[in-house]
Design a protein that fits this description.
2 domains; 8 strands; single chain; binds fe (ii) ion; globular; Nucleotidyltransferase, domain 5; 3-stranded antiparallel beta sheet
Length: 236
């Protein structure tokens, strides 16, 4: 069975191809377009995955992509009715949803003359994260955890995975989010692209570092109040 997984119309658009449970190829679209964090349709990443596997579009059995607009629908409707979010934000979400609905047409445009035989599956955001880790790992069962900003109205999900199943035990729903907290801290430190700063990601990997004292002293000096942004230099 051949499965193509897509992260489309979301930051760091990408494609991955799995054959019989083994990862054959995976690529981010930014590597081909040379545009960091590119967030459209990953046409070149898909072409790369197909050529690495030596197959055509018609050989794919299933295509999964990274959002299911029906997930947590009642929570979304309740939020919309009670909080009345900004209309531009709602329109942006609807445009994004329409873009994902057009994935079959985009595939046909990208690979003219080829036919799509695959079933296309919208996958709830955190299930997509959990599946991308578990279904290609060497274990038969595992505890699985996904934590990020937001996807399909939740920011984290955890549970147990075994065989083909992932059973969720719990979730964190909008507006609570460890990822957004992380973004706020990044923004507070003054990075121009909050959340996505590679420097800040590098700092996470190294634990305590030279940037920590300025953060603490500033935190104390301003008595926990958010002050003007300041750019912090990296020490390489
Ligand atoms: Fe995510």
């Amino acid at each position: 069975m051949i499965v193509l997984g897509l992260n489309a119309f979301h930051a760091d658009s990408s494609a991955a191809l799995v054959r019989d449970g083994k990862l054959i190829a995976a690529a981010e679209e930014e590597r081909f377009r040379r545009i960091k964090h590119w967030a459209g349709f990953p046409s070149q990443a898909i072409a790369y995955c197909l050529s690495e596997a030596g197959i055509k579009l018609s050989d794919i059995d299933h295509i999964g992509f990274n959002q299911d607009s029906r997930a947590n629908l009642m929570r979304k409707i309740t939020y919309f009715i009670t909080k009345r979010p900004n209309i531009n934000l709602v329109l942006r979400r609807l445009r994004n949803r329409r873009s994902r609905a057009g994935i079959p047409e985009l595939l046909e445009q990208t690979f003219p003359g080829e036919t799509i035989r695959a079933a296309i599956h919208p996958v709830e955001h955190h299930f997509a994260h959990l599946s991308s880790a578990f279904h290609v790992c060497p274990f038969d069962q595992a505890a699985v955890v996904s934590v990020d900003g937001f996807g399909d109205f939740s920011s984290a999900a955890w549970g147990v995975a075994a065989g083909n199943d992932i059973s969720p035990y719990g979730r964190v729903y909008f507006p609570h989010s460890l990822g957004i907290f992380y973004q706020a801290i990044t923004q507070y430190l003054g990075f121009p692209i909050p959340r996505l700063s590679p420097l800040w990601r590098r700092i996470q990997g190294h634990g305590a570092c030279a940037l920590r004292p300025p953060l603490i002293s500033r935190h104390h000096a301003e008595n926990c109040a958010l002050g003007p942004r300041r750019r912090v230099r990296a020490q390489s």
